[in-house]
Amino acid sequence: MLRVENLTIGYGKTEVVHNISFHVNQGEVVTILGANGAGKSTILNTIVGLHKAKSGNIIFEDVEISNVRPDQQVSKGIRIVPEGRQIFPQHTVMENLLLGAHIVKDTKKINSRIQSIYERFPRLEERKMQLGGTLSGGEQQMLAIARSLMTEPSFLILDEPSLGLAPIIVNEVFDLLKQISSSGVTVLLVEQMANSALKISNRAYVIETGRFVLDGTGEEIKNNTDVAKAYLGNI
Ligand code: ATP
Q1: Are 5 and 197 in contact (CB under 8 A)?
Q2: Most C-beta atoms within 10 A of its C-beta, which of 68, 93, 121, 137?
Q3: How many A from CA of 207 to the centre of ligand 1?
Q4: CB of 41 closer than 6 A to ligand 1?
């Protein structure tokens, strides 16, 4: 579904991602694991058109998308849940969901999507009139994910969904991602919480300072203790 080929990315003259290639098949959950500053967010932001690569190709469903604007990517079915959630704190839960659907013009469609989101996230329905900024960290992450589902993406990208959450809430978020994946959405995520991410991943790539140093199935990476310990620390 997504093919990234020989991607090199930098800021000004500094190169931070060096000639990486990877792919995500339809229906998979694929994780990029790595420490702070390894280049994970840079890769995701480049895929969704927020940053330009220095060279390489990004191919989504057989179409080159390196020069496609972020809003056009949403229309193609790609959606990102950004690092740090970035919900609108002064808007209610319901308004956040409506803002997530700004490209959808059909009110009936919007209302039925909000209803199915409330079925999947009953806690958001209970809090639909509450301001986003007053939700707990876990609830804000749920809202960020729910908001991204308002355009019914076929390919969901998440940048460190566990960030700042207590371990029990991290498990809830990953269970939810598993459900979303089972409903037919392909998932690419970047994470530092290797254990939680590998539990739900079909495959993973390990990145160190802008280069992939290991890839394989979740099991293979977990079992590769020497390499995993060296690069992940928390496996
Ligand atoms: P984290 O887990 O901490 O979010 P990451 O793996 O996502 O880390 P990136 O945020 O992609 O890493 O950063 C990769 C490198 O690029 C870092 O050295 C970072 O300082 C640098 N970098 C990121 N954004 C910019 C920017 N806008 N301008 C200059 N350098 C940047």
Answers
A1: no
A2: 93
A3: 13
A4: yes
> 10-residue block means of pLDDT along the chain (235 residues)?
97 95 97 90 94 95 89 87 88 94 86 92 94 93 94 95 88 91 95 86 93 89 70 52
pTM (two decimals): 0.91
CB 40 less than 6 A from any atom of ligand 1? yes
Instruction: Provide the domain count of the chain.
Output: 1
- Range of 53's domain? 2-84+154-232
79 alpha carbon – ligand 1 mean position (Å): 21
Token digits of residue 28: 């998979």
How many CB atoms are located within 10 Å of the residue 163 CB? Answer: 15
Residue 199, in any domain of the structure: yes
Give dist(CA 180, CA 221) in Å, integer.
23
Residue 218 lies in a domain: yes
